[in-house]
Write a structure and sequence with these properties.
With about 850 residues, the protein is α/β, with parallel strands linked by helices. It folds into three domains: about 55-245, Immunoglobulins (Immunoglobulin-like), CATH 2.60.40.10; about 370-460, Immunoglobulin-like (Sandwich); about 490-695 and about 725-830, TIM Barrel (Alpha-Beta Barrel), CATH 3.20.20. Helices cover about 15% and strands about 30% of the residues. The strands form ten sheets. An eight-stranded parallel beta barrel has the order 34-35-38-40-41-42-43-44, surrounded by four helices. Strand 42 (about 685-690), helix 7 (about 705-725) and strand 43 form a beta-alpha-beta unit. Helix 5 (about 590-610) runs parallel beside helix 6 (about 645-660), helix 7 packs across helix 8 (about 775-790) and helix 8 packs parallel to helix 9 (about 820-830). The radius of gyration is 28 Å and the shape is globular. The N and C termini lie far apart (about 60 Å).
């Protein structure tokens, strides 16, 4: 509920908490770096009336479980805190048995609350519910509109199997006023979750028969939360169209009074359950769901208060807290030291709030000050972050405060009472596990260790060096070869790697600027969906690794604002790799029917994105899709069993894409597949050839040898196809900065060629592969020379670019590597830039 402001919490002397020289530095920082704005006339006074707490309603929860409990077992309903972290601050209530498989509880909640919950089976420890296909239930949802009844069915538990029939719910989400489809709406029922596609359609599959509560929830609150009961029958589809009422935005002014022991200069952020308040709707490391770098910061004022004005949708159930870190670290506490989460039901009129932080810590442990220096060669645009592990895994990184002269500071106050000790490490741009302090490098690092104490502590560990970032990059020396200018229509660009993490969002404008500085005129974004099930296949966005609609649109607009043409190349995340995934699939007729349906939804989603955002190119196809093409084969050469009418299916899908997207359509095809291209290439505008070919017998090959080998392959295989189909050809080049990369096959432990994606971050390093930055330089220069001699090639794209940080690792990315100098030089010449 809303805090009132009647008294301050007990005073704690700041000088007893933080060493004097750090305190002085922080005071200077806040004076020098943070402007003290005059108090606005609209600011509320301490006597501003606060909203009256909303009345409560009794909700009856009735749940059917798959089998009777055993002696000593109990059943609980667990209400979740998405601001602190779904795994970190649940409120659990034991249910009462109605009979052997039906349990219930009657509980009070504030009107208009949106509850997020799941069921737990308590044995020796808590066992979480899972949906029928084995995936854990993230949460169920229920909107409290008055006294109500919720009927749920649990499919299975973590350690049990599901047997029995299932059904599905499907429909389209549309705007009540415009009737237009609404993308990226969270749909939940029966413990399953999904997101609506660009055309508003959704599918929840694998639901046990029974009555389920169907909820549609806008991530940013821009639409009123929808719910209704949905009856699912065995082996049947329940149609459920959803019409959402748009919510009107109102102005909410947050005024914050802080304790006197508040650390100066550390930004105070607002962490909340909405997308715009740092909630990623993803299961992030360490059980958290919010990111500090995506939260809005409050502005300090001369009167010692902090202010923030937000436009929030009326009707929103806002759960929030104030923090000097994220939803867990350095977040406000109650006066008794407990975790604090506030609730505000945003009404239909503008609102002024006065909140007071009672405490930043629980008083049982003194703060730990991290005062570190970093190498002078740290890129000037980078920020330094600290990451903590309280004993149950690394949580997400938190930005530190720059004190100038390569010095960074962070003061950790809470929750130091979790385990009595923590591990910590430092990284660049919140990419811990990838852009690390050399001493604690890699996703599996244990980091440094420190115990909490009743006395303040100071950590002054210097970062002596960064992993994958040498102190100096040697200049690239290229042969003086005349470059044939191709003009403005030549495609010179960069393709981002498909791997994604929500922490990339704040870094994307900078990354796009880096791409533009390479003389690149094109950026290819590679958004993904994930196969979350194989038999039968389910392809859907998973927010922890797939960029959601709103962020993708922001990236497209940011790229365009920096003068880049945008291309979309949608691809998929496949757990365990595509070879294993395809070989383990049943691939019978019904499987293929579902596969084509799922792929159609996926690719039409991005066709709609491309159309709505005016994207110049849309690329379909790719390496992973070969088994689904006409006459498709698996990686071992055996037939995939693709339906005989696959050619007709693909042509029909391409026709559907063109009905939605009027721009240029490309087909991505590996060079190895050019000898047997699909016949439907005649319906594509351009060909995007994915090139990682062998152009050297060993790493000692000269550039001249590599250029000649590449030229022969281009002339003997690609040029005849280009002449036959009469389509422009663009080369997408991906070579690792690794010894032997030019051979086209880095050996893997299984005796096959290594999947180059495994060299990309955040995957762990592969020690058997040797870093060789110069070989990547030589390969790129050889390829550029070969392209320079062939005017029938319409463009070149450098693939695998890692956006959030400069890393001179073994991957195919050229970001911050010597090879980017090669690309800069040749792009400048090809485009005729003075």
């Amino acid at each position: 509920m809303i805090s009132s402001v009647n008294k301050r919490p007990p005073r704690h002397a700041l000088r007893n908490k933080i060493p004097w020289h750090i305190l002085g530095l922080l005071v200077m920082l806040i004076s020098a770096c943070t402007p003290l704005f005059p108090q606005p006339s609209t600011s509320p006074s301490p006597n501003t009336p606060q909203p009256t707490p909303l009345p409560e309603a009794l909700i009856t929860f009735r749940v059917q479980i798959p089998e009777a409990l055993q002696a000593g077992e109990t059943l609980q309903i667990s209400f979740l805190d998405e601001v602190t972290g779904l795994a970190l601050n649940p409120t659990n209530t034991t249910l009462k048995a109605d009979d052997s498989t039906h349990y219930s509880a009657i509980l009070p909640f504030a009107l208009h609350s949106v509850l997020k919950y799941r069921y737990l089976l308590i044995r020796n420890q808590a066992v979480q519910e899972h949906i029928s296909d084995g995936r854990a239930v993230r949460y169920r949802m229920y909107r409290v509109d008055g006294p109500g009844l919720v009927q749920d069915v649990v499919s299975r538990w973590t350690d049990t199997d599901f047997s029995g029939p299932t059904g599905r719910i499907t429909g389209q989400v549309t705007d009540a006023k415009t009737t237009q489809p609404i993308p990226s709406v969270l749909i939940a029922a029966g413990g399953a979750q999904t997101f609506s596609s660009a055309d508003g359609t959704y599918l929840l599959d694998g639901l046990p028969p029974g009555t389920h509560n169907l909820v549609a929830y806008a991530l940013d609150g821009s639409y009123r939360t929808f719910q209704q009961g949905a009856v699912v029958a065995a082996e049947s589809t329940t149609p459920a169209p959803i019409v959402l009422e748009p919510a009107q935005n109102v102005s909410v002014i947050f005024t914050l009074i802080v304790p006197p022991d508040t650390v100066p200069a550390l930004p105070i952020r607002l962490a909340g359950n909405l997308f715009q308040l740092g909630n990623t709707f993803a299961d992030l490391t360490g059980g958290v769901n919010t990111l500090a770098s995506r939260m809005p910061a409050l502005t300090p004022q001369s009167d010692g208060r902090y202010y923030l004005t937000l436009n929030l949708p009326a009707g929103t159930d806002l759960r929030y807290k104030y923090t000097m870190g994220d939803g867990l670290w350095n977040a406000e506490r109650t006066s008794q030291g407990g975790i604090r989460v506030r609730q505000l039901i945003v009404l239909d009129s503008n609102l002024q709030l006065v909140d007071q932080v009672e405490a930043w810590e629980n008083g049982k442990s003194a703060p730990i000050t991290f005062d570190i220096t970093v190498p002078a060669h740290t890129p000037p645009g980078d920020n330094v972050a600290v990451q903590f592990n309280p004993g149950f895994g690394w949580t997400e990184a938190i930005p530190m405060l720059s004190a100038g002269n390569n010095r960074w500071i962070y003061v950790l106050s809470s929750p130091l009472d979790i385990t009595g000790s923590i591990r910590y490490r430092f990284c660049r741009n919140e990419q811990c596990g990838s852009a690390d302090d050399l001493q604690t490098a890699g996703p599996n690092s244990q980091g440094h260790f420190i115990r909490s104490s009743l006395l303040p502590q100071m950590v002054v560990d210097p970062v002596k060096d960064w992993v994958w970032l040498p102190p100096k990059m040697e200049p690239v020396i290229l042969p003086d070869i005349p470059i044939v200018a191709r003009g403005a229509n030549f495609i010179a660009g960069v393709e981002f790697q498909p791997g994604y993490h929500p922490s990339w969002k704040p870094r994307m404008p900078s990354a796009l600027g880096d791409v533009r500085s390479l003389n690149s005129k094109w950026i290819t974004l590679s958004p993904t969906w994930t196969f979350t099930r194989n038999n039968l296949p389910v392809l859907e966005p998973v927010p922890s690794q797939d960029v959601l609609w709103a962020n993708l649109v922001e990236d497209i607009q940011s790229a365009r604002s920096q003068g880049l043409h945008v291309s979309l190349f949608p691809t998929t995340n496949i757990p365990g790799g595509s070879d294993l995934w395809w070989s383990s699939a049943s691939r019978d007729f019904s499987w293929w029917q579902v596969w084509f349906e799922r792929y159609r939804t996926f690719i039409l989603h991005y066709a709609d994105v491309a159309a709505k955002e005016g994207v110049s190119f849309l690329v379909i196809g790719g390496e992973w899709i070969a088994p689904a093409l006409p006459g498709g084969t698996l990686s071992d050469g055996s037939a995939s069993g693709v339906p005989e009418d696959a050619e007709m299916r693909w042509r029909a899908l391409i026709s559907e894409i063109r009905n939605r997207y009027k721009g240029t359509l490309l087909w991505a095809i590996p060079f190895q597949s050019l000898s047997n291209p699909p016949a439907f290439l005649d319906s594509i505008d351009q060909i995007y050839v994915l090139w990682s070919e062998k152009i050297a017998k060993g790493s000692d090959a000269s550039e001249e040898e590599m250029k000649n080998k590449a030229g022969k392959q281009l002339d003997e295989i690609l040029k005849p196809l280009q002449a036959q189909i009469g389509k422009p050809v663009i080369l997408g080049i991906a070579y690792p900065s690794a010894d032997g990369g030019a051979t086209g096959c880095l050996p893997s432990p299984n005796g096959k060629c290594l999947d180059l994606n495994l060299l990309s971050r955040p995957n762990p390093d592969i020690p058997t592969v040797t870093l060789d930055l110069q070989e990547q330089v030589n390969v790129y220069d050889a390829m550029m020379i070969a392209i320079n001699e062939r005017d029938w090639i319409s463009g070149i794209i450098s693939r695998g670019y890692y956006p959030p940080a400069v890393l001179q690792d073994k991957s195919t990315s050229i970001h911050g590597k010597p090879a980017q100098g090669v690309v800069w030089h040749w792009y400048k010449g090809f485009l005729g830039i003075p």
